[in-house]
Specification:
Aminopeptidase; alpha+beta; 158 residues; seven-stranded mixed sheet
Length: 158
Amino acid sequence: MLPLATARLRGGDWRELCADDLAALFAIDVVEFLPTGFHGLDTAEQQQDFLGALSQQADVLALFDVSGQGVGLVILSHANPNSPERHLGYLLAQRVWGQGLATEVIAALQAQFRETNVTLCGGVMQGNTASARLLERAGFHGAEFDGEAIYRWAGSGQ
């Protein structure tokens, strides 16, 4: 599991998320700009099954606040097995939006991969201006591709 910690968050096993945490993370407003696989998962069992399947092809990391409550997910997958490119996905429970936690998470990931050959790559759907601004402020460079913007950041600073 990828080690990740910030001043206010710690990464952990997604299986530690309780039903209330999962419900907050799969709320309609939270998954609005995520791929369709995240939509319509109404029960904890469906959400756990989805994350279990996803974790077979990606690193899925739960984010917990200082009280131990689950407040987010980070998903890192490989573009292909031999590529240094990692596809980045993240989501936060609506109750913690606007508190700078996503900025902390992205900065922690960048610190982890700085001076490596890893390139973080995140797709941002049209209309998700908050994520686009976040990635741009963090030094990601975007390009339009098939209805979404693809943002990249290279660990080597290239």
